[in-house]
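One chain given next:
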Amino acid sequence: MTQGLMGKAETALASARLLLEAGDSDGATNRAYYAMFDAATAALQWAGSTDTPPKTHSGMIAGFGRDLVQTAHLPAELGRSLNRVHELRLTADYITAPVPLDKARQAIEEAARFVAVIRELLRPPAG
């Protein structure tokens, strides 16, 4: 199941880039966050935290911090990044003024780093 979630994360990240190119900063920010959401959910499954997707965004973020950052499986910066992009996603989805293009670009860059680190975490050991 983690590979399926990582596939969804990669697709959301690709969509974010396309939306940014089209000038849709809100859509790009939303898809960047969901790339992170899917990757974080995969990482939580890897850690044995959950077999099903988290019921709330705040629950997923809290579980990510508790089960992956505080246990030193992942760096604290990843947790902070997830929080930053989540806040931007709330702006994109619920505030009338669009997310500035530079902030959307930053969200995509953070999502790309986030997904790459999770992909590495989930990679089977060589040998």
In short: The chain has one domain: 2-122. The mean pLDDT is 93. The helical segments are 2-21, 25-46, 57-69, 76-94, 101-122. DSSP finds five helices and no strands in the chain.
